[in-house]
Amino acid sequence: MVQSKPEQMSLILFSGDFDKAMAALTLANGAAGNGMQVSIFFTFWGISLLRRKNSGSDLFLEKLFKGMMPIGAEKIGLSKFNFCGIGPWLLKKLIRQKNGQTAQDLFKMAMERKIRFIACEASLKLLGIKPEELIPYERLELAGADAFLQSALESKIAMFI
Amino acid sequence: MVQSKPEQMSLILFSGDFDKAMAALTLANGAAGNGMQVSIFFTFWGISLLRRKNSGSDLFLEKLFKGMMPIGAEKIGLSKFNFCGIGPWLLKKLIRQKNGQTAQDLFKMAMERKIRFIACEASLKLLGIKPEELIPYERLELAGADAFLQSALESKIAMFI
Amino acid sequence: MVQSKPEQMSLILFSGDFDKAMAALTLANGAAGNGMQVSIFFTFWGISLLRRKNSGSDLFLEKLFKGMMPIGAEKIGLSKFNFCGIGPWLLKKLIRQKNGQTAQDLFKMAMERKIRFIACEASLKLLGIKPEELIPYERLELAGADAFLQSALESKIAMFI
Fold first, then answer.
1. How confident is the model at residue C60 (pLDDT cuts 50, 70, 90)?
2. Is residue C12 a part of any domain in this protein?
3. Mutant choice from A17, A39, A61, A155 vs B, greatest count of B C-beta within 10 A
4. Closest residue, chain C, to A30 (C-alpha)
5. Do B61 and C161 touch (CB under 8 A)?
6. Which of A4, B97, B160, C105 could form a disulfide with C101 if both were Cys (CB 3.0 to 4.6 A apart)?
């Protein structure tokens, strides 16, 4: 798939589920590994993957929603059979037994492969998450839906996850 | 993105979740605002966004499924943390506090921007929803999966939400 | 849509939900019926559609996850209102009343229409599902995410379901 001008793939990660995040990161890393330029637009529950730490916030409802959202790739739940976190814990154990890649591994690989991360500004504003609460990464931008659409128009593959 | 022949985007809204509907409508409005031609194919749970009112129906199972499906953009639940409707209520309150756009605003904007709505005929038949139970909108059509596929083939972006 | 070189569509079926599987198969059959070449990449929960029978497995965690995953198109649940299997049972009853196509019908039609099935190798390995536990079908391949990406790059439509 190596070409003069690399093919592009744009993903929206709307879901904050562990299993869907792993699917998105696996596809993104596979595409980047094959020379494609990959952008992931993190929006709504997907923002939880980019969070570094909880900081003080004044609005009660913000706190409530932020409190419900997990922080980082290791804390998110499954889309099915979550069982209050037992599902993801078992899945991670199973992945370790099989020497598979964990969500954390896939997330680090995505950064090593220079995948472009876009954090949805409207979601950050709505949830009261400040830019300094996100992971440090030079390829992380804050932008709106227009940035995703522009990227998707230039892409061969655009998917909503 | 303004061009001689406008780019197209086709979305399938399968989900009836409030948060996913807002994501779909935000993308659709953004694309239409940038001069793209946008079609949304509402199918299965997504049909609930197009419902105007409940009417009498003879089949018990239809009634049961229709009774479970919410009516209109203001009544639908969240894909996560729904808590019997408390989640969406809190989210709407948060959106109001932030002066953000509500689902109802986004839905109206989509109609103002002449986004094409396609209601999946097979879903309507299955759920026993009659065309007169859907919202009045001159750009609303009833059609099958073929209409979506034809539109997707002409589109730069096609996504399943 | 009949052309010298047929258009392609590539779907990822990540979800193991009955309603989403029906949506994927309806789109796939519609596209194949219009002369398109269709590939479905079954991954994670979507693998449950391809399972034939449960076989003995040594790892406890594998057994646990495999035990949670349903087997075949008739046993999967709904993404909403599943109610411990009552939802899918009611939906199937409703489909029969309306003389609609069941998931099993759609699945058989997909095989008759020579739709290419790709079972995600990493998911099989992770869940401890052996190739001989999958349905017999000459167009079923085992492959990784790269196979999906290659297919998606050649496709007009690529969607994540």
1. low
2. yes
3. A61
4. C146
5. no
6. C105
Q: In terms of C-beta distances under 8 Å and separation of at least 24 residues, what long-range contacts does C26-30 make, across chains too? A: C26/B122, C26/B145, C26/C101, C26/C106, C27/B12, C27/B145, C27/B148, C27/B149, C27/C159, C28/C110, C28/C115, C29/C106, C29/C109, C29/C110, C29/C113, C29/C115, C30/B144, C30/B145, C30/B146, C30/B149
Q: What is the pLDDT of residues A64-86, one digit of tens each?
A: 666 667 777 766 677 766 655 66
**Nearest chain A CA: its distance from B57 CA (Å):** 33
Per the structure, the count of domains in chain B is: 1
In a domain, A48, yes or no: yes
Average pLDDT of every residue of chain C: 85
Chain B residue closest to A146 (CA)?
Answer: B30
Decide if B3 is inside a domain.
no
A153 touches B at CB < 8 Å: yes
Instruction: Please list the pLDDT of chain B residue by residue as tens digits (161 residues).
Output: 555 789 999 999 999 888 899 999 999 999 999 999 999 999 998 998 898 865 555 556 666 666 667 777 766 677 766 655 666 776 777 777 777 777 788 999 999 999 999 999 999 988 888 999 999 999 999 999 999 999 999 999 999 99
Pairing status of strand A116-120 against strand A140-143: parallel
| Cβ separation A62–B94 shorter than 8 A | yes
Model ipTM value: 0.83
- A2 part of a folded domain: no
CATH (domain of C94)? 3.40.1260.10
Q: Do A23 and C160 touch (CB under 8 A)?
A: yes
Interface check for B46 against chain C (CB to CB < 8 A): the answer is: no
CA distance to A26, A69, A80, A150, B131, per residue, from C44 (Å): 12, 23, 11, 30, 37
* Domain residue limits at A155: 8-160
- A148 touches B: beta carbon within 8 Å: yes
Q: What is the pTM of this model?
A: 0.86
**C-alpha to C-alpha distance for B126 and C94, rounded to whole angstroms:** 7
Provide the chain B residues 72-111 that lie in CB contact (below 8 A) with chain A: 79-81, 90-91, 93-95, 97-98, 100
Q: Do B157 and A160 touch (CB under 8 A)?
A: no
